[in-house]
Amino acid sequence: MKVLVTGGLGFIGSHTVVELQKEGYQVVIIDNLSNSSIEVLDGIVAITGKKPIFEQLDLRDKTKVQGFFKQHQDIKGVIHFAASKAVGESVKKPLLYYENNINTLVYVLQELEKLEIANFIFSSSCTVYGQAEKMPITESAPVQKAESPYGNTKQIGEEIIQDTCKINPKVQAIALRYFNPIGAHQSVKIGELPIGVPQNLIPYITQTAGGIREQLSVFGDDYPTPDGTCIRDYIHVVDVAIAHVIALQRLLATKNEINFEVFNLGTGTGSSVLEVIESFERVSGEKLNYKIVARREGDVISAFADTQKANKYLGWKTELTLDDAMLSAWKWQQSLNKD
Ligand SMILES: NC(=O)c1ccc[n+]([C@@H]2O[C@H](COP(=O)([O-])OP(=O)(O)OC[C@H]3O[C@@H](n4cnc5c(N)ncnc54)[C@H](O)[C@@H]3O)[C@@H](O)[C@H]2O)c1
């Protein structure tokens, strides 16, 4: 069974390709390598022993997208990861983000509608909740006005899919709202490849410990949380990847209750920045050089998922711990340092 994974050489996409191949799916990847490297393909092959079909293609090129789908009319599902994801950059270059995250989604959906079987999984984000009033956050928590153009593209993206599903019952879609995916594959063959200065906590930690960055800044220790630092729900990327396979299987088996469903992907547990640092120091045996600095604008205080809906309807729950994720991220960083 053929499945298209857009952005399949990226961080979450590559881990999902591995899990799809393990389950016997024939995977076709589209990626323009704007935030990934062709070597990721070798990593996937090293883990699974199978080479996915790879098309280096920019999804902003509508004609090429149309040409691709004409050639692959037997696709039975699309998992759409391709997008730009740096929140800070999106504030500086909003039109780039709207073009890359919205146009590409529309072009893919336009072609998906023409297929006989139109199953679609979308990478959404917990950013749609903003600072939710109640913890843990359920899927019915109100979507808040987005703080950044990036966050807005996820909200608009969900609306575009929902509107499409409303008028076209053939389209079956699931939006997965990720909390904070981290870690790397246990084989240490694939992981996160941040280009430039990392925007996320975990690569910043591992790069600091690995000697690439001098010091980690912890933004604020005066938040109303037990240790004063911000709380997030860090989820191992392999658990996230497995959830995609299960969500796709739900659509393929027509087990979905409506043709646009939304699920949180998180562990259900919040960890503070200082707890993450402690976990890193425990599993790596390294002492991290960090300092507390002023709060950063735009950070929500706390966000962690209520996972009951995903547990019940997808029959999925996370298997890996924060320590597992931190150890894999550290091993991955060490393998990059060797190159
Ligand atoms: N990583 C996170 O913390 C996180 C959290 C919530 C949601 N998401 C969403 O999950 C998805 C995957 O995230 P990721 O962390 O794996 O990001 P990533 O940048 O590692 O992967 C995205 C991939 O898409 C490719 N791509 C981007 N624009 C493209 C285009 N126009 N045509 C073809 N390929 C294109 C990039 O080269 C990259 O390989 C994104 O949609 C992101 O917004 C990520």
Overview of this protein structure:
The structure is a single chain. The chain is an alpha/beta fold and 339 residues long. Helix content is 40%, strand content 18%. It has 11 helices and 13 strands. The chain has helices at 11-22, 39-48, 62-71, 87-92, 94-112, 149-167, 201-209, 237-252, 273-284, 308-314, 322-338, and strands at residues 2-6, 26-31, 53-56, 75-80, 118-125, 171-178, 180-182, 216-219, 231-232, 234-236, 260-265, 271-272, 290-293. The strands form 4 sheets. Strands 3-2-1-4-5-6-11 form a 7-stranded parallel sheet, with helices on both faces. Helix 3 (62-71) runs parallel beside helix 5 and helix 7 packs parallel to helix 9 (273-284). The chain is globular and about 55 Å long. The mean pLDDT is 97. The protein binds nicotinamide-adenine-dinucleotide.
How do the helices and strands line up, and which of them pair or pack?
Elements: E1 2-6, H1 11-22, E2 26-31, H2 39-48, E3 53-56, H3 62-71, E4 75-80, H4 87-92, H5 94-112, E5 118-125, H6 149-167, E6 171-178, E7 180-182, H7 201-209, E8 216-219, E9 231-232, E10 234-236, H8 237-252, E11 260-265, E12 271-272, H9 273-284, E13 290-293, H10 308-314, H11 322-338
Parallel strand pairs: 1-2, 1-4, 2-3, 4-5, 5-6, 6-11, 7-10, 8-13
Antiparallel strand pairs: 9-12
Helix pairs in contact: 1-2, 1-8, 3-5, 5-6, 7-9, 7-11, 9-11
The structure holds nicotinamide-adenine-dinucleotide (NAD).
